[in-house]
Amino acid sequence: MSVKTFAAIDVGSFELTMKIFDFSGKNTMREIDCIHQRIDLGSDTYANGKISNEKMDDLCHTLKEFAQIMESYKVIAYKAYGTSAIRETENTLILQDQIEQRTGIRVEILSNSEQRFLDYKSIASKGETFRRIIEEKTAILDIGGGSIQISLFDKDTLVSTQNLRLGVLRLQELLNHLNAGSTQMEQLVDELATAQLDDYKKLYLKDREIKNIIIVDDYLSPWAVRKAHERGDGNAMVDSKAFYQLMEALRTRGTTELAKRMDIAEEKVPLVYISTVLTKRIAELMGAALIWAPGVTLCDGIAYEYAEQNKLLRGEHDFAEDIIACAMNISKRYNGSIRRADTLEHITTTIFDSMKKVHGMGQRERLYLRLAAILHDCGKYISMINIGEASYDIIMATEMIGLSHMEREIVANVVRFNHSNFVYYGQAQDRPQGLDKESYLTVAKLTAILRLANSLDRSHKQKFKNVKAQLRDKELIITIETDEDIALEKALFASKTAYFERIFSIKPVVKEKRVYS
After folding, report:
1. DSSP 8-class letter at 289
2. Cα angle vertex 19, ends 118, 150, to 5°?
3. pLDDT tens digits, 129-170
4. CA distance linking residue 506 with residue 96, whole number of Å
5. pTM for this structure?
6. In 430-506, where do the E strands start and end?
7. Closest-CA residue to 273 (of 199, 183, 210, 163)
8. d(CA 191, CA 15)
9. DSSP string computed for 469-481
10. Strands 5-11 and 464-472: what pairing?
């Protein structure tokens, strides 16, 4: 088999990283080189909302060097992603264009949920250790320059995920503004974090005790991995004793000595300290006894996703089900009916699967439909009259790890238009923001399917034992098995078919099959 090389580039808040991977082995992903270049973009962005010309020059110079390295490795494909330091600038689009014109490298911008999902995939690349740990109550603590993400798992299921603006570079900028000395740092970081973390505990953690914390960062993780190598241990597990020894060293030893002992640049020492204080505070909050630092980075997640998409690697974890689990928890938070969501999800996917030749959509769009079915009426928690608008606001305000902003717009608008009149693309003054023509067409198709499915269970009594759908010529035959009176459903179904017919030029027909229990 020919060597397949891929480059993953992370334009991070504190440094640029490029990893070169080899996918020539069967179902394997091997890192063959890793290049770091420190460029502190985050301090500019978080303080001023802009990146200075000087740092822009450094960024482009480094990316040109990365391009030459990729050429030397005969890289067949690459992905370059920018995170919060570029995402939060005032002129993101202009920056992207400048970078591409000057370097030939297209840097795509990750939303927070996309970035955290790739970090999550990077942990999954560790295989069996990852699967074993998340079988127990586990938190993934993803510490970035701009924010942290806390994702809770229980029995291999994602329970919740939340983003808090407690990133190490953001906190460092605030500490610099306060002229905080090294002796004050721990107390100030703890105080800054406590208010948000206490609210987080009340809303999401409650009485749940977490056994393990998986940490992903560029600060504490390298230390943990190095300690594991010194012990001759492949798994960078950190118990409370080793962790508190590190805390004591950070408190009492000088920056120069720490940098030498930890084999890092001196300017990185305060960031390690902030990351360690945050991890300590969160571990205490959760009652966690064990911390695992797998030593992975965003680049590992980028490569893992590329390998999955191109069938170079077969992942065992079902990430789509994590997104579904996230939606189920949002629905639960807003008093959604699990039975009703299950019924709608089943009917919508049955219709979707029977019409593949007509709608031309794939598995990703099927996922959007499932999410819309689960969240179809979450807005009733706020308003029983304006359910569509309220649902839209909830979905857009609630992060679902693994969905981009555009994808969340699609799901939110499908739910919105399930309850309100559809606004066609040409009606520009009322058109939802952030949707291109292709995405808008997806919204129209999925809305038609969800409306049709919704009409079949309008009484919310789940009267059907089974639902089947089959496409015959210009008709979609929907066969339902029931032992109850479905006069209401039939009447509403007939009134809801016009929009479906306009979108697909297919007439839905209900056939009733009586079953007796």
Report:
1. -
2. 25
3. 888 888 888 999 999 888 899 988 887 777 788 889 899 988
4. 43
5. 0.79
6. 464-472, 475-482
7. 183
8. 27
9. EEEETTEEEEEEE
10. unpaired
